Amino acid sequence: MADAGMVIVGAGEAGTRAAFALREEGYKGPVNLIGAERHLPYERPPLSKEAMALAGGGMKAIADAERFEQAGIRLILSAAAISIDRAARKVKLESGASLAYDRLLLATGARPRRLAIAENSRRCVYLRTHDDAEAIRSHLRPGARIAVIGGGFIGLELAAAARMRGCAVTVIEAEKRLLTRAVPAEIAAVLHEAHAKSGVDIRCGAAITAIGGHGDGFSIALADGTSIDADACIIGIGAIPNTEFAERAGLAVENGVRVDARMATSDPHIFAAGDCCSFPLGVYAGRRVRLEAWRNAQDQGNLAARNMLGRQEDFAAIPWFWSDQFDLSIQIAGLVDEGVETVRREIGEGAFILFHLAADGRLVAASGIGQGNAVARDIRLAEMLIAKKARPPRDKLAAAETKLKTLLAA
Amino acid sequence: MPEWIVACAVDDVDEEDVIRFDHDGRTFAIYRSPDDEFFATHGLCTHEKVHLADGLVMDDIIECPKHNGRFNYKTGAARGAPVCVNLQTYPVKVEAGKVMIEIGGRDG
């Protein structure tokens, strides 16, 4: 391959994984990894979980500086890529520098959706980066009143962390229940119960009419006439993909940078991976989705790297998510909304798995909740059954004594 | 000094499966391979200290239940991101229907 080298814009999980994958695949040319933050690339999942619970915070680097050096990956941190010259195959940085590429990977991630009604309040905080997490942590003092706007994964994980640090926590969710986007009602109900039991005040179906600052705190007015006073307000109402850089270069964008099953954009020299891109899922007849998930970022970073080197592999992974709240862990494989029927398996100590079946009986998703990693093994096996497009008998799925591994062999 | 201890009975572990074994403040994972051999490793994933016994055994691979880090449980070799540190393994023998592991002198 003619070799100006590889440029990766975005040093999160997808971009960093791709950089290492290029080397693991034997690529010898230049690899440039451009990151917007000043930190070495780090793992984001702990930001709403362990980093909040630990006294000193802490950061889990994806790899230390020595490993980047040994792999010959040039890290360009605190840097912004501002434009792509597609004809000349060059990326221009804000610093004025210009990097030539043979293949370019966009792994620009996503950013928190902002709440318009809170724009005048500088003390409302959002979570995406390590620095955001540190800012949030500084508010989580024992006794502090914390309002969390948004009952999704980020909001609930932070609510649990705040409660465990001794804060008084209120969660404000516009929908009628928590986690409407990706989690079945039965599982959301277990989480609701766990939060309520620990003392989190959950307000579902709540419409915010005003957020006012007074003195050192906030007052959040709801449409039902009540108001919530808080010392700090955390907002977690979803994320929007960072596509502007791709759009300016004239690349196709459709709820994210549009890529094909090989992670290639509308320009064959440019690929995209992770939270910033939308892609077709073969297992669901090519349904186009965008996922904000850690394992997806790894899978797509790996695949993009291989295809940047000329492989012709299609994305075949099954979407997979997890969340930790209090002592509970939930895991979901596949897209729950592909199912029309649910089969429930009890696996002891309150833990259960829901198998989501399509009209033709095909297993399309599985979701589970339990203490610790109680559901992990069954969800992993379900993921393999989904990939195989299996139609397991309903009675076997429901019966805990039937090992899912035997269904996989069937 | 080698120290052999009884971890479990042979029948406590299904074929191609794993169980957790705690001893003296240390935690281990005991595996039974598809070809009916027994193996032992340190009990926690080297990525985030998660108990591997909750994970899935496929052939000679144990997969961490949390982040899908993979190890060859026969050799302890890490098999790709997010794990990059190998897993400690321990000698195993089967005597009179008991699975015994030798843990002397190593960290667990």
Describe the structure.
The complex is a heterodimer of chains A (410) and B (108). Chain A is α/β, with parallel strands linked by helices and 410 residues long. In chain A, 25% of the residues lie in helices and 30% in strands. Chain A is built from eleven helices and 26 strands. Chain A has helices spanning 13-24, 50-53, 65-71, 130-139, 153-164, 185-197, 244-248, 294-308, 376-387, 394-398, 404-409; strands at residues 6-9, 31-34, 73-76, 81-85, 90-93, 98-100, 103-106, 110-112, 124-126, 145-149, 168-172, 201-203, 208-214, 217-222, 227-230, 232-235, 239-241, 257-258, 270-272, 277-281, 287-289, 320-325, 328-334, 341-348, 351-357, 363-371. In chain A, β13 and β14 (217-222) form a beta hairpin. In chain A, α1 packs across α8. The model of chain A has no long low-confidence stretch (mean pLDDT 94). By secondary structure, chain B is mostly beta strands. Helix content of chain B is 0%, strand content 42%. Chain B has no helices and ten strands. Chain B has strands spanning 4-9, 17-23, 26-32, 38-42, 56-58, 61-63, 70-72, 89-90, 92-95, 98-102. Chain B has a four-stranded antiparallel sheet with strand order 2-3-4-8, with no helix packed on it. Chain B has a three-stranded antiparallel sheet with strand order 1-10-9, with no helix packed on it. In chain B, a hairpin with a 2-residue loop joins β9 and β10 (98-102). Chain B is globular, with a radius of gyration of 13 Å.
